[in-house]
Amino acid sequence: MMKLHEDASLHGDAPVAAQAGMMNDRRELALVAVERTRMPMVVTDPRQPDAPIVLANQAFLDLTGYSSEEVLGRNCRFLQGPGTSADDVDKIRHGLAEGNDVEVELLNYRKDGSSFVNQLAISPVLADDGTLLYYFGSQKDVTERRRAQLLEDTERRLLMEVDHRAMNAMALVQSIVRLSRGDTPEAYAASIQGRVDALACAHRLLAKRSWTGAQLGELVSVLVASRGDTARVRHDGPDVLLGPRLAQPIALVLNELMENALTHGALSDTEGTVSLQWRCDNGRASLEWREWTSKALSAPKRPGFGIGTIKGVISRQLDGSVKLDWTDRGLHVDLAFDTEGSATQVLD
Ligand SMILES: Cc1cc2nc3c(=O)[nH]c(=O)nc-3n(C[C@H](O)[C@H](O)[C@H](O)COP(=O)(O)O)c2cc1C
User: Fold this and answer.
1) One domain, residues 124 and 207
2) Which residues form the signal peptide (predicted)?
3) 64, 66, 75, 77, best to mutate for ligand 1 pocket (most atoms within 8 Å of CB)
């Protein structure tokens, strides 16, 4: 808040002068300084109706693109426009009403219609007895700084998200390496390879849609195709977009079903087939996996990593339901889960 002394017109505090003689020139100097500074400035008169601008410096005219005739006598609100936040304007109005200094960044418009972010600072100018005489306002175009800040924030959020996804993928790979089994080093390597490939496949589909999700049908097609004999796996269902956190766990589950069918189930027999159907109601997907073979099969004596993964992912991670039914003609599986569910991604 500035106080106006009797012997000063605009600046309440005397400018520092090196010699006593120079003090006589301070009014002139103050005016020259206001005029010459690159900081846009205005003075408004609250004692006149609608508090018009009574002084505007060249930097203000340069910033806004108006001439002095076009700004003098008008309230500064003419700089506001469609995108100016009502909250910012309220903040100014209330700040002024309470006699406070006001600082706000708000959207303003130049005469040519282009917009800029205005860092506005307003102070009341008071007489010695405390009477309000004028308001002093300075403006600064901070559009570029604001843009850079926004970009920085977006970049930071993006980096955090990338970090989070990388950690999730690492956690999944760690679990796969830890829990996979194989009778020989080659079998162990192959089982890990298949699972990591399934994760990579989901990753590619997510990247294709900028991580908004992955189409279940697309995921099924690619995973089935990666196992060769696609004609024996019939699949069908509506378009279902799996949320970004679901695609990788579901890819793992589908990979385990395929792997199990190829090693122990219907696809281990040359004539066996699989039917995979799904549907989605109110954000809940249900998958029906049916194996069939003419050869009689026996259920595995103890569930391996594959079955453990299916149960772990669907019931614990996705809070869904799993029903496994071993028949002597192959495995029947019913799965249900929310398509927007938030998976925690770690297997145990
Ligand atoms: C000294 C001074 C400078 C101001 N400069 C600006 C400005 O550059 N841009 C702007 O949008 N509003 C500016 N204002 C705010 C408006 O003049 C007005 O106070 C604000 O819109 C709230 O009042 P209203 O609701 O009557 O419009 C300034 C106000 C004062 C007192």
Assistant:
1) no
2) none
3) 77
Ligand 1 atom closest to Cα of 84? 11
Same domain? For 136 and 198 the reply is no
122 C-alpha to center of ligand 1: Å? 9
Q: Give me the phi and psi of 59, to 5 degrees please.
A: -60, -35
Assess contact for 92 and 104: CB atoms under 8 A.
yes
Tokens in use for 172?
A: 């999944």
Same domain, 20 and 131: yes
Q: How far is the CA of 115 from the centre of ligand 1 (A)?
A: 16
CB 344, CB 289: distance < 8 Å: no
Give the model confidence (pLDDT) of 138-192 as tens digits: 999 999 999 999 999 989 988 888 888 888 888 888 888 887 888 889 988 988 9
Go through 202-234 and write b for each residue having 16 or more CB atoms within 10 A of its CB, e for each that does not. bbebbeeeebebbbbebbbebbbeebeeeebbe
Please report, for the domain that includes residue 261, its CATH number. Answer: 3.30.565.10
Cβ-based burial of 30 (10 A; exposed 0-12, middle 13-18, buried ≥19): middle
Q: Can you tell me the distance from the alpha carbon of 58 to that of 41, in angstroms, rounded to the nearest whole number?
A: 8
Q: Tell me, yes or no, if the pTM score tops 0.90.
A: no
| pLDDT tens track for 224-238 | 998 877 789 999 999
Distance 57 CA to ligand 1 centre (A): 16
